[in-house]
TrEMBL record:
The lineage of its organism: Bacteria, Pseudomonadati, Pseudomonadota, Betaproteobacteria, Burkholderiales. The Tol-Pal system is composed of five core proteins: the inner membrane proteins TolA, TolQ and TolR, the periplasmic protein TolB and the outer membrane protein Pal. They form a network linking the inner and outer membranes and the peptidoglycan layer. GO terms for cellular component: plasma membrane. The keyword Transmembrane helix applies. Its main location: membrane. This is Tol-Pal system protein TolQ. It is a multi-pass membrane protein. Keywords: Cell cycle, Cell division, Cell inner membrane, Cell membrane, Membrane, Transmembrane, Transmembrane helix. It is found in: Cell inner membrane; Cell membrane. The keyword Cell membrane applies. The chain crosses the membrane at residues 12-38, 129-152, 172-194. Residues 79-208 form the MotA/TolQ/ExbB proton channel domain. Part of the Tol-Pal system, which plays a role in outer membrane invagination during cell division and is important for maintaining outer membrane integrity. It comes from Acidovorax carolinensis.
């Protein structure tokens, strides 16, 4: 390669096939990472909006039975918190239909159903997070591998030269370093997104766990005050 032609495109085109393969892999990972970042960004925004809407309805004074009927009809478009609520109410009503009247059994059944639903919802919310973590931790090493291989390839080519100058060494080294740059290009956004999403998911989890405890307390009060199925809070 001409020592004066040091554009990124020329460096990539003149790199060895192993380095080019590493660059192609990192570019593909970077694109997939950005796609996962945008999907997760919109998904978390939707989860927060749906949870806020349901919580507003929940504390508006609407009866539990009406909320449950609405959640059952809107199951496909419901948010995580609404589905958690529906699972607790469903289990509570099933136990009622079996003529179980012990408050402890009813509360324990509803709480276990909500905890199981909570775990399922969090599995969905946390999807793609492990991929971003893997990209963040592995990409720099993949780029470093490409760089090391490129430098080895470059120095092998210099072995037959009687005189090696900076002008002859620089292009080969620059070709190799592009792989490290691509590795960092893939890793840095993934690290930032992973930390941001992990913090947001923790907040969603804490919010939903708090709701489970509050709803359990409401059921407990209703069971203590009314022998029938819960109707208000």
């Amino acid at each position: 390669m001409n020592s004066q032609d040091m554009s990124i495109v020329s460096l990539v085109l003149h790199a060895s096939w192993v380095v080019q393969l590493v660059m192609l892999l990192l570019l593909g990972v970077s694109i997939a990472s950005w796609a996962a970042i945008f999907r997760k960004l919109f998904a978390l925004k939707r989860v927060k909006a749906l949870n806020d809407d349901f919580e507003r309805d929940f504390w508006s004074g609407t009866s539990l039975n009406d909320l449950y009927a609405s959640a059952a009809q809107n199951a496909k478009n419901a948010g995580p918190m609404e589905r958690i609520f529906a699972s607790g109410m469903r289990e509570h009503q099933k136990l009622r239909e079996r003529r179980i009247t012990d408050p402890g059994t009813l509360l324990d059944g509803a709480r276990r159903a909500m905890r199981a639903s909570f775990q399922r919802e969090m599995d969905v919310v946390e999807s793609s997070l492990s991929f971003l973590g893997s990209v963040a931790s592995v990409s720099p090493y993949v780029g470093l591998f490409g760089t090391v291989w490129g430098i080895m390839h470059a120095f092998t080519g210099f072995a037959g030269m009687e005189q090696v100058t900076l002008a002859t060494v620089a292009p080969g080294i620059a070709e190799a370093l592009v792989a490290t740059a691509l590795g960092l290009f893939a890793a840095i956004p993934a690290v930032i997104a992973y930390n941001r999403f992990a913090r947001d998911i923790d907040r969603v989890a804490n919010h939903q766990e708090t709701f489970i405890e509050e709803f359990t307390n409401i059921l407990q009060r209703n069971l203590g005050a009314h022998p029938g199925s819960p109707s208000g809070h």
